[in-house]
Amino acid sequence: xSNVLKRxxxxxxxxxxxxxxxxxxxLAFSVGKKFGVNWDExxxxxxxxxxxxxxxxxxxxxxxxGDYPPILLSFAWVKMDRVPVILGQYDFFENFFVSFERYNLxxxxxxxxx
Length: 114
Fold this sequence. Notes:
- The protein is mostly beta strands and 114 residues long.
- The protein is built from two helices and ten strands; from the N terminus they run ββββαββββαββ.
- The protein has one domain: Acid Proteases (Cathepsin D, subunit A, domain 1, Beta Barrel).
- Strands 1, 2, 4, 5, 6 and 7 form a six-stranded mixed beta sheet that branches. Strands 3-8 form a two-stranded parallel sheet.
């Protein structure tokens, strides 16, 4: 299933990691740069813990999963590229049902009804 991120007139297809242990959505530095965002215009700084242990900048993007309607998600844009696009609890898990079935080696993601 493809993932599309959009901001203004720019659109990027990307692979994302669904991470139930991540509190927030995370966006790698190079991905944010493709949207023309300037790191030095830090509008809202988010302190991050865990494996990242750094600060991120709040960046809101339209996110579309497959053929489902797009939704607005908030991301912590971090100044590092060794992280994938991460879909975490805040915003993503609030808008989608996520079912992990390890014994069947599968998972399912569907939008929550509005």
